[in-house]
């Protein structure tokens, strides 16, 4: 956001400029203030923190010296009047024209108990003299005979006290006050004095008012007239107000109107009371006796207006005043009143309806309210109307009011008097209270376009002028003086003031001068040259010098010189230009989610010599940290707002300020989130409930700055499912109503939730509850099925109706069934539960089934027929296997012929293919493994078994199955062909010399055939050559190979593959080089630590260092006779550490690391302990052969004990074949457990010596296998416990198996892997 510089200082009043001769004076507090000037103010720069006075741009040259004098003199008069503010010497001979300061209102009403008092106060110098006129004739209050007159000295106000209550009658008239001194005469406005006597009701004879019940009547009031507004009340003799309503109304004229009378209106004391606030008097009219005759034949009649009585009327309304229109009608039934405006709508913000809509009040009438207004009285029999034609007029009001001014000799004065009104007011001018028409013609003044113009002014032309405008609605008067003076030049601005401003701004150096004639003002630099040669410098007529686009080199001293023909004065002004405040990086507008946090940053630069501050604002109001709240975190350059809410969005600004300037950078924060709650719901069109419909409307939710995408409509039934809401659907976000299709017999309570891209908002408040009528069912159950769980039954099931589809209470189901293709009678039964068991059926017979909903109101629609079947039996069909086809060394294709459907005894669900590994062809040993199986759909007669072990023997069996279980199996044995071997298990490189390496490896774990040898390949890596050397190693028993003639500078990549007759297998790869490439053997961080009889030497092998062998020799220091000499030990570099035992305690040892008699490293260590002891001669018990012999005996005894334990635990339970199956071939590898199109034999799992049950051979259907490869699916049905319907394994199988204790599912899709 770009920064927005704003002036820190308010523009001074003296900076106000004018390019015309018109003047705007200062007025002291005790003078009438002129209207605010309409000219713009230039910005200001305060000297030493003080405000400037007004300044104006320079006058055009055509005004000359006289014009400049007038501009300066216009400010003199207020300075003289406000002399305490200005410390200069004012000439005592300067006078003040008269100014009216206080006067009576334009209308004065005198009541019998009051004195006649009129006010007229004025100021002026010399002292003001007062005189009064009444009806244009001189009036002297003190000369009134027989009256007591009070009048204070030097005041025009007076009061007259009479000797009778009606003395004021003789003083009625139009008064005007004149205040005069040597400089002129001021005049007050016209004051109308009215005298009002004690109000009395004229004597009259009030006759009873007789009327028949139902007719209309008007009870008149007619109070005495009064100059002041009065109040009317209708009461009875008990001082109780007459109750008013639409039938009984008091009009604006005070009359009491009855639209139709009732017998209850029969009273003899209807009294009209008139309250006169001026006299503080309440008088009452004689009581009116209203007699109502009862009738049994009240006739209805259409409305008729009692007031106004004609069809139309014309009214004049005054602009700015209220307009009151009234219509009162009679009729039976009582009419209602409506107000219309044919030209457009009523101004709702200014119109009010009162008195039961019979009175229209329009406030602050304007020209736009001109036109026709209609009132319409209506009842059931007809209507009546009245048209008011309103004309808006206006009393005179000012467009430009003449102002008082000071002038110098030779100037021209122009006093503008512009007024407006309807009708257009007449404008007249007076000079010193005398109409200009009555003055002799003088060339010094003329009236031009309503303005009074006086030219070539002289001190003797000082005067007070009056402009008066009037039309039939009022009068306006303005006094304005013309004062012509002569004074020497003076400068009011203090000398040697210092001004400070920032670069790029505008500075204003003050030089407030006055005098008569007007002094000429010019600004000079230190050399006495004018500064106006630079176009950035510009003067104002009040002497102020403006300098725009300030630069640093503008700092300096400036001299102001004011001169007229009487004097010449000069002051100096000092200007200091500072660096401007700038915001280098301001806050950036952002959109954040509710609940998150936002951080605004602000970086600003300041003048180093100025105190500065950085504040934060929100929507133009300063932000403060809120006490203990962590909502805002404010630092100079950061504002962090935590836990954003929608109320936090707005405009945030950084304000950088000094005492000279201020800049602001603003950013907008929008907080978004899910919508607010829908505030209100409304139900309508309730008559549609008979058709189970209703219209729901709602008020739009607050979208929280993200458009509402849709509304979700939900309902709750507090009777059936309290506190559970169901969706009725969604409507677009721009829709706020919809007609809902409802279900019968539901207690609906609705709510609506708004949704936008941030999710759903809070739901609306609950609507009122509506209840739909009961009806017959409209739906029948779905998912109707017929299946048996025994061979002689059929269970009919269906999905029960939801409660919202019941349509009435007592919901039940009518179930019908009959054998398929038999047109016999239907068997039926009505049930409440969602199932029915049909017994004594034949095995696997198709039935036609229908399920229909019934309730207390009737039946549902005719149901569709569903085909179901009675219970299944175990299949008797045996799939006929075809020869197995090998696809590759690990994948085969198994095929069979489809079975006879009649032998399936049920729905053919698919085929179960079981297979297992029996042994390797290389070694004819066997081991027991878990069986893999694949379940394929009924329309498939083949299966691909993948992931098999090459060069092995397998057994495969295929069984058909239905919902009851598996049928008999057909089996076959097949062999997989030989394949390529796996990668060698290990490959190690050992450095022999600078040109040779020794390779060590281990054979592959998976031979997949008969190994025929190895292939070794290698190539250099860093000589740019891609040539690879390769040669065969035909000995399969080979485990090492020595490579010679290698380059000592190159690094090689080695690749080793095992081979069978099918070719080489996967390679193992290693990289390395010779001893020369590794450099000098590095034993980095080598260290040694010791115990009493051992020492551990450890080192960190260098990365990239070739592995090699070396010797470690512990050599005891000191007396070798006391220490057993230890031989050197062979160690590999990569093993990182070596432990030497059999050391003597408290002995120093030298440790040498040797390779081929070359010393690689040498270090020393000392063992712990208390001292050396002489060891006895070694006996045969310490010899190695003896220790080995004893160890062998212990191992043999341990093996015999284990064999005995195994034989005892088996206890003769197993056949010879079982024992053979448990012998695991060391070359046979585990196989994965896969199903449904892929093989599995899970050899890695533990197994027992007995064969697993059939239940343990089949993997669940929920495995990772897919039926997509077979183009079909398996339809498998389960009981509630997850097993096949019909219990695939069955009781007979359990008995045949000797009592299988497994309690799990016994189907091919949910097997149990327990062992017997």
From TrEMBL:
Top-level taxon in the UniProt lineage: Eukaryota
Q: Report the protein name in the record.
A: L1 cell adhesion molecule
The taxonomic lineage of its organism, from the top, reads: Eukaryota, Metazoa, Chordata, Craniata, Vertebrata
The species this protein belongs to is Ovis aries
């Amino acid at each position: 956001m770009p920064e927005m510089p704003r002036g820190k200082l308010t523009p001074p009043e003296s900076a106000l400029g004018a390019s015309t001769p018109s003047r705007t004076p200062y007025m002291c507090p005790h003078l009438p203030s002129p209207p605010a000037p309409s000219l713009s103010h230039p910005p200001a720069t305060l000297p030493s923190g003080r405000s400037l006075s007004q300044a104006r741009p320079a006058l055009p040259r055509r005004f000359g010296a006289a014009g400049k004098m007038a501009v300066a003199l216009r400010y003199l008069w207020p300075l003289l009047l406000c002399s305490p503010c200005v410390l200069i010497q004012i000439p005592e001979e300067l006078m003040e024209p008269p100014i009216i300061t206080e006067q009576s209102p334009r209308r004065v009403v005198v009541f019998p108990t009051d004195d006649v008092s009129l006010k007229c106060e004025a100021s002026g110098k010399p002292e003001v003299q007062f005189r009064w006129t009444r009806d244009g004739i001189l009036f002297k209050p003190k000369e009134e005979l027989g009256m007591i007159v009070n009048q204070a000295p030097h005041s025009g106000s007076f009061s007259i006290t009479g000797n009778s209550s009606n003395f004021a009658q003789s003083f009625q008239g139009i008064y005007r006050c004149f205040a005069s001194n040597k400089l002129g005469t001021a005049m007050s406005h016209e004051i109308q004095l009215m005298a009002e006597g004690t109000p009395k009701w004229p004597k009259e004879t009030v006759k009873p008012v007789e009327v028949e019940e139902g007719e209309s009547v008007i009870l008149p009031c007619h109070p005495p007239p009064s100059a002041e507004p009065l109040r009317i009340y209708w009461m009875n003799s008990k001082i109780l107000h007459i109750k008013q309503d639409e039938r009984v109304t008091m009009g604006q004229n005070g009359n009491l109107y009855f639209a139709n009378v009732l017998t209850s209106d029969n009273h003899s004391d209807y009294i009209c009371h008139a309250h006169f606030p001026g006299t503080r008097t309440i008088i009452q009219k004689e009581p009116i006796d209203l007699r109502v005759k009862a009738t049994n034949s009240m006739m209805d009649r259409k409305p008729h207006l009692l007031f106004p009585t004609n069809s139309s009327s014309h009214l004049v309304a005054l602009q700015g005043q209220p307009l009151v229109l009234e219509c009162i009608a009679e009729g039976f039934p009582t009419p209602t009143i409506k107000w219309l405006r044919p030209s457009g709508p009523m101004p709702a913000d200014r119109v009010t309806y009162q008195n039961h809509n019979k009175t229209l009040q329009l406030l602050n009438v304007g020209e736009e309210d001109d036109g026709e207004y209609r009132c319409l009285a209506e009842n059931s029999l007809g209507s009546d109307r009245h048209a008011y034609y309103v004309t808006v007029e206006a009393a005179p009001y000012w467009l430009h009011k003449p102002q008082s001014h000071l002038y110098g000799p030779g100037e021209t004065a122009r006093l503008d008097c512009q007024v407006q009104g309807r009708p257009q007011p007449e404008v007249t001018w007076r000079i010193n209270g005398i109409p200009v028409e009555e003055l002799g013609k003088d060339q010094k003044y003329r009236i031009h376009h309503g303005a009074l113009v006086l030219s070539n002014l002289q001190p003797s032309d000082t005067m007070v002028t009056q402009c008066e405008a009037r039309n039939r609605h009022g009068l306006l008067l303005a006094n304005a003086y013309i004062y012509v003076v002569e004074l020497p030049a003076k400068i009011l601005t203090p000398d040697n003031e210092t001004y400070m401003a920032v670069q790029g701004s505008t500075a204003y150096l003050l030089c407030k001068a006055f005098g008569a004639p007007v002094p000429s003002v010019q600004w000079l630099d230190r050399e006495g040259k004018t500064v106006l040669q630079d176009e950035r410098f510009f003067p104002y007529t009040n002497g102020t010098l403006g300098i725009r686009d300030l630069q640093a080199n503008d700092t300096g001293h400036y001299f102001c010189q004011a001169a007229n023909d009487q004097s010449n004065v000069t002051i100096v002004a000092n200007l200091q230009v500072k660096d401007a405040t700038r915001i280098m990086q301001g806050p950036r507008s952002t959109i954040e989610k509710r609940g998150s946090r936002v951080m605004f940053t602000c970086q600003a630069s300041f003048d180093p010599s100025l105190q500065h501050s950085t504040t934060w604002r929100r929507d133009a109001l300063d932000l403060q940290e809120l006490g203990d709240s962590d909502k805002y975190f404010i630092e100079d350059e950061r504002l962090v707002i935590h836990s954003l809410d929608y109320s936090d969005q707005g405009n945030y600004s950084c304000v950088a300020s000094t005492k000279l300037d201020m800049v602001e950078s603003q950013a907008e924060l929008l907080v978004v989130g899910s919508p607010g709650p829908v505030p209100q719901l409304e139900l309508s069109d309730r008559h549609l409930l008979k058709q189970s419909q209703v219209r729901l409307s709602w008020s739009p939710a607050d979208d929280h700055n993200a458009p509402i995408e849709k509304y979700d409509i939900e309902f709750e039934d507090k009777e059936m499912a309290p506190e559970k809401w169901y969706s009725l659907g969604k409507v677009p976000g721009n829709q706020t109503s919809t007609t809902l299709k409802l279900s019968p017999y539901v207690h609906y309570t609705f709510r609506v939730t708004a949704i936008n891209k941030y999710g759903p908002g809070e739901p609306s408040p609950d609507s009122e509850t509506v209840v739909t009528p009961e009806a017959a069912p409209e739906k029948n159950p779905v998912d109707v099925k017929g299946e048996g769980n025994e061979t002689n039954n059929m269970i009919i099931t269906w999905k029960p109706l939801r409660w919202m589809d019941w349509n009435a209470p007592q919901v039940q189901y009518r179930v019908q069934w009959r054998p398929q293709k038999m047109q016999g009678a239907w068997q039926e039964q009505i049930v409440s539960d969602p199932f029915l068991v049909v017994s004594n059926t034949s095995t696997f017979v198709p039935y036609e089934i229908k399920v229909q909903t019934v309730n207390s109101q009737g039946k549902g629609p005719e149901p569709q027929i569903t085909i179901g079947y009675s219970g299944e039996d175990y299949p008797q069909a045996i799939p006929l296997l075809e020869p197995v086809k090998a696809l590759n060394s690990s994948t085969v294709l198994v095929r069979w012929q489809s079975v006879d459907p009649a032998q399936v005894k049920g729905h053919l669900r698919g085929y179960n293919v079981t297979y297992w590994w029996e042994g390797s062809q290389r070694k004819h040993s066997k081991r027991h493994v878990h069986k893999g199986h694949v379940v394929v759909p009924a329309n498939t007669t083949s299966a691909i078994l993948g992931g098999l072990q090459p060069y092995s023997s397998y057994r495969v069996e295929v069984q058909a199955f239905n919902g009851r279980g598996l049928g008999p199996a057909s089996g076959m044995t097949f062999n997989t062909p030989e394949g390529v071997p796996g990668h060698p298990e290990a490959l190690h490189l050992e450095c022999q010399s600078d040109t040779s390496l020794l390779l060590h490896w281990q054979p592959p774990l998976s031979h997949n055939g008969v190994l025929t040898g190895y292939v070794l390949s290698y190539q250099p890596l860093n000589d740019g050559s891609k040539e690879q050397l390769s040669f065969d190693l035909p000995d399969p028993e080979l485990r090492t190979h020595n490579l010679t003639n290698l380059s000592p500078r190159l690094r090689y990549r080695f690749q080793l593959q095992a081979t069978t007759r099918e070719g080489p297998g996967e390679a193992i790869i290693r990289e390395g080089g010779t001893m020369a490439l590794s450099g000098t053997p590095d034993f980095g961080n080598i260290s040694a630590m010791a115990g009493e009889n051992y020492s551990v030497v450890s080192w960190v092998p260098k990365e990239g260092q070739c592995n090699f062998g070396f010797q470690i020799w512990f050599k005891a220091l000191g007396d070798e006779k006391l220490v057993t000499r230890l031989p050197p030990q062979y160690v590999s570099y990569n093993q990182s550490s070596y432990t030497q035992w059999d050391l003597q305690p408290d002995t120093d040892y030298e440790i040498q690391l040797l390779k081929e008699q070359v010393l690689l490293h040498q270090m020393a260590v000392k063992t712990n302990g208390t001292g050396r002891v002489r060891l006895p001669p070694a006996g045969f018990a310490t010899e190695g052969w003896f220790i080995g012999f004893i160890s062998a005996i212990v191992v043999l005894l341990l093996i015999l004990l284990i064999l005995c334990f195994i034989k005892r635990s088996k206890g003769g339970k197993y056949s010879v074949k079982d024992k053979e199956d448990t012998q695991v071939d060391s070359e046979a590898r585990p196989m994965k457990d896969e199903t449904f199109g892929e093989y599995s034999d899970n050899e890695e799992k533990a197994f027992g010596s007995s064969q697993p049950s059939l239940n343990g051979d089949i993997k669940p259907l929920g495995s990772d296998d897919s039926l997509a490869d077979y183009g079909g699916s398996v339809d498998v049905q389960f009981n509630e416990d997850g097993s096949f319907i019909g219990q695939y394994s069955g009781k007979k199988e359990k008995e045949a198996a000797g009592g299988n204790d497994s309690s799990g599912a016994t189907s091919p899709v949910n097997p149990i892997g327990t062992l017997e």
